[in-house]
Amino acid sequence: MGGLMMRLSFVPVTWVMLLFLSRLFVGLEAQLQVGFYGNTCNMAEFIVKDEVRKAFFSDKGLAAGLVRLHFHDCFVRGCDASVLIDSTPTNSAEKDSPANNPSLRGFEVIDKAKARLEAACKGVVSCADIVAFAARDSVEITGGLGYDVPAGRRDGRVSQSLEASTNLPAPTLNVNQLTQTFAGKGLTKEEMVTLSGAHTIGRSHCTSFSNRLYNYNATVGQDPSLNPIYAGQLKQQCPQGSTDANLVVPMNPSSPSITDVSYYMDVLNNRGLFTSDQTLLTDRDTASQVSQNAGNSFLWRSKFAAAMVKMGRIGVSTGTAGEIRQNCRVING
C-alpha cells in the first residue's frame, strides 16, 4: 500500500516537472523565431535577399564577406551586430581590430538593406537579423543549401576592438586551440570542422599566411605541411618583403565563388591556406570529418546549414534587451 501511494504521488510531480521543463524549453526556443517579421515587416527577408543578389552580381566576393561578417559578429558578444558599429574618437570598435581590418567587408550591403527596411518598416528590423539573413542568402547564392533563419535578435550597444582580437580564432591556431575556441561558443568539434568549410569561398590577405611561406619557425622557412607546388604559386602572388597590405589570394583557387567541398579536398592535398585549415588533418576525429565532407557534398552542405543556424543563436539578445539600431553603424542616441 505504501509503495502504491509513493507511485501515485510520484506521477503528478513527474508530470509537473516535465511540463515545466517543456515550457522552459519552448520559451528558450521562442526567443528566436522563423518568420519573426511576418506580421510587422513581411518583406524584410526579401529586401535583404535582393540587396545581397545585387551586391553579388556586382562583386561575387561580397558573398564570402557577408558570411564572414556574420561569423565575426557572433563570436564577439554574440550575434548582436556589434561588428557593424563605427569607431569614435573615444572608442576603437570591433571592425577596426587587426582581426577585422582591412579584411572584413560587406558593410555597405547591410547599410543598403537597412536603409530600405527603415523606409518600409521604421524601427522594426534589427541590424543583427539583417546580418544573419544576408549570410544565409550568400550561402544560397553561391550554391549552398538555403535554410530558415530564426530571427528576433536585438542590436548591442557596445563594440570594442580588443574583444575582437581576443575572441576571434586566428589563422595560426592549431586544432586543439580551435576546438577550445569553438567550444567556448557552444559549438562542437564537428561543427568547427563543418564551419571551417566556409573557406571554400572568398579571399585572404597575404599577411594572414605569409609566415607559412617565409618564416615558419627558427629552423624552417616554409611550412613542411604545405604542398610545395601550391607554396610556389603563393610565393608568386605574395612576394617576400612586399609592403603591399592589399595583396590577396583566393582561399579556394579552384572555385572561389562556389560553396562546395573542394575546400576539404584542398586540405586533404595539403593545400589548406591557413595553419588553421591544414591543422584539421593532425587530429584523428577532425581528419575523419574532413575526409567525410570531401566525399559527400550534400551531407556537408546540410551540416553547414544546421551549424550556421546554431551559430546564429550565440549570445543573442531578444525581447526588450538591447535596441533596434536606426543606423547599423551608430548606436541609438
3D architecture notes:
This protein has about 325 residues and is an all-alpha fold. It has 14 helices and two strands. It has helices at about 1-30, 45-60, 60-75, 105-120, 125-140, 160-165, 175-185, 190-195, 210-215, 230-235, 260-270, 275-280, 285-295, 295-310; strands at about 205, 250. The chain has a two-stranded antiparallel sheet with strand order 1-2. The radius of gyration is 22 Å and the shape is globular. The termini are far apart. Residues about 1-30 have low confidence and may be disordered.
| Low-confidence residue ranges | 1-30
**Span from first to last CA?**
69 Å
Question: Biggest sheet, open or closed, and with what strands and sense?
Answer: 2 strands, antiparallel
Q: Assess the beta-strand content as a share of residues.
A: under 5%
The coarse overall form would be globular
Number of helices: 14
What percent of the residues sit in helical stretches (DSSP H or I)? Answer: 40-55%
Oligomer: single chain
- Evaluate the radius of gyration: 22 Å
Structural class: mainly alpha
Report mean pLDDT, rounded to a whole number.
Answer: 92
E-strand count: 2
Major β-sheet strand ordering: 1-2
- Element-by-element helix/strand order: HHHHHHHHEHHEHHHH
